[in-house]
Design goal:
By secondary structure, the chain is of the alpha+beta class. About 25% of the residues lie in helices and about 25% in strands. A 3-stranded antiparallel beta sheet has the order 5-9-6. Strands 1-2 form a two-stranded antiparallel ribbon. Strands 3-4 form a two-stranded parallel ribbon. The two termini are about 25 Å apart.
């Protein structure tokens, strides 16, 4: 698959900073050339950027908040073993894995049906049915991965 590059003009008085708020320019040229521009430096945007880091494409992540503000949200996420495999594929599992909670059983029930389905890790050949992570843990790992990628701004 060939992706055609396009020019991404940034407003003359601002330049794109990696998942930080827009800052005044430090260079005379306010225009950068990118193959992919991702608007939103949250979890989904940074996962997308990380997945492109070895593609050879020049990627820009545009986020209105500072990295610290974007990471500082009081919430947690539950995610599946498939999502865990995505994080592992991005090389982040060693960072986030030790800070996760592992769900060892999920019971699915319905008020109109007397029986319940019980899911256990062995049903999915995994070490957990689901995982839970704080927003901060995921964001800091993703932000560090994006910062260390030379093809991502």
């Amino acid at each position: 698959m060939t992706v055609a590059p396009f020019d991404c003009p940034v407003q003359p008085d601002y330049r794109v900073q990696p998942h930080r708020s827009l800052q005044p320019p430090s260079e005379a040229n306010p225009t950068e050339r990118y193959d992919v521009v991702i608007v939103g430096g949250g979890i989904v945007g940074l996962v997308c950027a990380c997945s492109l880091k070895d593609s050879g494409l020049k990627v820009a992540v545009i986020e209105a908040q500072s990295a610290a503000a974007a990471a500082n949200r009081q919430r947690a996420y539950a995610f599946s073993p498939v999502s865990a495999k995505i994080l592992a594929g991005l090389g982040l599992w060693h960072t986030v894995g030790p800070q996760l909670t592992h769900f060892q059983q999920v019971k699915l029930s319905d008020a109109d049906y007397r029986k319940a389905l019980i899911f256990r890790p062995e049903d999915g050949r995994s070490d957990a049915v689901y995982y839970s992570a704080e927003h901060r843990v995921l964001m800091q790992a993703l932000q560090a991965a994006v910062r260390s990628a030379p093809t991502i701004d």
